[in-house]
Amino acid sequence: MNASTEVELDDAFSALPQLHVDGLIVAGEPFFDSQRERIVRLAAKSAIPTIYAWREYVLAGGLISYGTDLPESYRQAAIYAGRILKGEKPANLPVVQPTKFYMAVNAKVAKSLGIDVPPRLLGLADEVVE
User: Fold this and answer.
1) Contact 87, 50 (CB under 8 A)
2) Which of 5, 22, 36, 127 could form a cystine bridge with 104, CB 3.0-4.6 A?
3) Which of 70, 62, 74, 57 has its CA nearest to residue 102?
């Protein structure tokens, strides 16, 4: 589903029961991030298990996140900026892909949704919110 406005977000979540959706994945993109609390609230109201790109969603009450480690990505961007400011040409810099990922699980939300998170998954998580 696509949404690029608050109204479209509301409409998308309203359509979920008719579509028999069992779960959602919310992409890591700027509009969704600006609507983090709204999306988490709508997912909770719909009782839809949802996976997000960043841990901030889990801290806001989302179920689980798995994605690039944002502080590490920002650090890498700063290194590139420094190299460019020192005279290196951007076209000569190699493409760097993320190598560090972060998973967070909100155990309280899992329990409210009736989901038993396997202990192995909890053990693999970088952070478990109780």
Assistant:
1) no
2) 127
3) 70
Instruction: Determine the Cα–Cα distance for residues 71 and 65; give it in Å rounded to an integer.
Output: 15
| pLDDT of the residue at 82 | 97
Q: If pLDDT is split at 50, 70 and 90, which confidence band does 34 have?
A: very high
Given a cut of 90, whether residue 58 has pLDDT beyond it is: yes
Q: Which residue ranges form the domains of the chain, and what is each CATH number?
A: 6-68+100-129 (3.40.50.2300)
Question: What CA–CA distance (Å, rounded) separates 114 from 125?
Answer: 19
| Cα separation values, 2 from 15, 42, 48, 111, Å | 12, 15, 17, 28
Query: Under DSSP, is residue 47 helix (H, G, I), strand (E, B) or coil?
Result: coil
Residues 56 and 69 sit within 8 Å (Cβ to Cβ): no
- The pTM score is 0.84
